[in-house]
Amino acid sequence: MFRIIPALFLAFLMSSCAFQNLHRTKDINYVFSNSQAGLPSMDLDVYAPKKAENLPVLVFFYGGSWKSGKKEMYHFLGNRLARREVVVVLADYPLSPDYEIPAMQKSALAAVNWTKDNIARYGGDPDQIFVSGHSAGGHLASLIAVKEDKLEPSANGKKLAGSILLDPAGLNMYGYLEETSEGEGKKYLNAFTDDPAIWKQYSSMYFLTDELTPMLILEGERTYPSIRAGRERFMKRIDEKGIKDVKVKIYPKKKHIPMITQFLWTGSSVYKDVLRFIKEN
Fold first, then answer.
1. Where are the beta strands (DSSP E) in the chain?
2. End-to-end alpha-carbon separation of the chain, Å?
3. Which CATH class is domain 4-280?
4. What is the pLDDT along the chain (281 residues), one digit of tens a residue?
5. What is the pTM (predicted TM-score) of this model?
6. Cross-strand bridge partners of residue 28
7. How far apart are CA 216 and CA 134, in angstroms?
8. Per-residue b/e over 138-156, b at no fewer than 16 CB within 10 Å?
9. Where exactly are the structural domains of the chain?
10. Which of 156, 164, 170, 210 is most buried when burial is the number of CB atoms within 10 A of its CB?
11. CA 46 to chain centre
């Protein structure tokens, strides 16, 4: 965390001049604190080009080990993708230790459903919504993708156009915590509890079906071993089930944090990969 904050602060300074060509709407409340779901009040930001109309939409959840982060740190991502004709939604979600993973998933689902109901007024197409996230946020995006039946359908019955996972953690949280809950994995129990049934319920790989919408996984070659192992087990299950439309790209020499900070540079190849996937789906 100490390494990423300076880079993201620099990104904010670098991207502040880009606002003039964009509409940036901040702190939109998408979950009210008196919600029956037992969630705290949660806000999101929307970035859209001026005169946007029926553009694809990316709903992004940040990383931070399920315990830290805030949407304001990712202005650079909203700015740069909006300048490439993508409407971007950056959503906060409840964090541990005050909240556990079930509340995080509920909140993430609420953010996507809010987007489906409201994004047209910002120039986004509610029938072309992609979910995305980095690290823990990639985990939340993956849960939405594999549990798409929990989303509200849009007018034509379509729910998601696809998902883009950036170095996602937790794809096999059950297996990881089974091996490490008494050691390095203990730090994640505030979010995932000490109940193995919860670990499995919130491990994306156990909910894969042939109805999965297109998925793109972008991973750093030098990411954490646990992330690589989780992705490999996830893809093994993809193959076992005969699911075809899941792509993986490995970025040479990239570590975990640079998988998100590379979005600071407008010439980065990651934009081509993300935009190509959006265009194709």
1. 22-31, 42-49, 55-61, 87-91, 124-134, 162-166, 215-220, 246-251
2. 33
3. alpha beta
4. 334 445 555 444 444 444 458 999 999 999 987 666 788 999 999 999 998 899 999 999 999 999 999 999 999 999 999 999 999 999 999 999 999 999 999 999 999 999 999 999 999 999 999 999 999 999 999 999 998 877 766 555 568 999 999 999 999 999 999 999 999 999 999 999 999 999 999 999 999 999 899 999 999 999 999 999 999 999 999 999 999 999 999 999 999 999 999 999 988 999 999 999 999 99
5. 0.91
6. 44
7. 12
8. bbbbbbbbbebeebeebee
9. 4-280
10. 170
11. 15
Report which residue type is found at 45.
Answer: D
Diameter of the chain measured on Cα atoms: 53
- The structure tokens listed for 95 are 């964090």
CA–CA distance, 61 with 23 (Å, rounded to integer): 20
Question: What is the rounded CA–CA span in Å between residue 95 and residue 78?
Answer: 22
- Please give the Cα distance from 216 to 228 (Å, whole number): 15
198 torsion bin: left (phi>0), alpha (psi -120 to 50), beta (else): alpha
CA-derived radius of gyration, the chain = 17
